[in-house]
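ARCHIVE CARD
Drawer: 12
Card no.: 0347
Subject: one protein chain, sequence and derived structure
Cross-reference: see card 0346
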Amino acid sequence: MPGPSNPPGRADVVVIGAGVMGASIALELQRSGRSVVVVDKGNAVGGGSTSSSSAVVRFNYSTLAGVVAAWESVQRWADWSGHLGHVDGPLARLVRCPMLFLEPPGFPRSEATSLLAEVGVPFEVLDEHELTRRFPSLDTGRFFPPRRPDDPCFGDPPTGRLDAVLVPGWFHRHPTIATANLNYSTAMEPDGRVVDRYDKVRTVPFGEFVPFRGLLEAVSGTDLPARDVLPGTGPAVLDSSIGRLGVAISWEVFFEHRTRDAAADGAEVLLNPTNGASYWLTVLQSQQVASSRLRALETGRWVLQVAPTGFSAVVDPQGRTVLKVGKPQDDHVRVSATDLAAWYRTDGDPTFAARLDRTIGGLLPGLRWLDRWMTSCVTTYTPTGHPMIDALDDRVFCCIGGNGYAAKCAPALGELAAGILLGNSWPSEVDRDLFRASFAA
């Protein structure tokens, strides 16, 4: 990056990278009396991945080293001016706010709270009643562990408080007709009672039933579905304690009469439970969201499209998608170091940025942009799961934040890295071996 017109001919230390980690190390080295030069490919300090940091300081790490680094760093962030010394211009400011950690099954809170207690991080343990009192919008019901639909306990009520009506979808063999399957939704009250049921009426040819099965089976071998879904005949509604719900299961949303009939029968909101697992591209899944938008416009109802795979969406009565989540799961690709370096020199992905613009605009229709910009950002991951602070040889040292440590823990990590370079002893409360460099072949 641009530097002084007469850069020094030599320096005690050259720090490569002017992000938050490099700047922290350079500060500590300079304080020790060493002459330091910082070089970076960009045109500003902190202009790379650091500029895209979420700037959240958290303490819920699974290791003592992670908790210690974050807790030591937050003390410096709290007195940032004092940590830096006299600095002209505006400074970063720490905004303290609580963070809520829920205890999922299989991950006992003691594994985290024991580390917090050891380091001295203040915390509270809230029971279900207190959690509900302080955070009334949270649903504290728990349906765990996951169960198959043929499990006798599948429909059991939650082990915690669940103040909502559930509409689970079901697909299984017919209990008495050996050649048939069932595809339906039920309304389940907070106490676990099933109060209504809707069986899918418009089934999918060659997916849920086979037209002219007798003729086609003779030439198709085993490629056809073994059983047909037995279609329902009732109205596309579910009655519940919160009102009448319209239901269009999966591709039924493509047929306008299904949702129109539901609205005519008094449905106050339309549900579209679906599963996009059969389609590995997003064309049909995107068409289904578009159909949900049409159904909302036609009926003047909210439409909730929910999919374990594919896209889930919330559509308002004007046909606007106010929330859309989900993406195909085949986007985890490996790229060469050359391609990654080339991408990093760009300003990010304009297609993704435009999509994000539309999403934010849909959520906040009155929003007016004053300015926006893009930058590429790379998150590094280390094989050990910890930052790597180590000497590669007598003259070259590395400090890699990685795994979300860099920005929030930079002050403490910078001190550790500078100490290694200066030959200082490693702090006894942190396991040195956890931070040694390890590179994949």
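Annotation on reverse: The chain has two domains: 13-100+376-435, 165-363. The mean pLDDT is 80.
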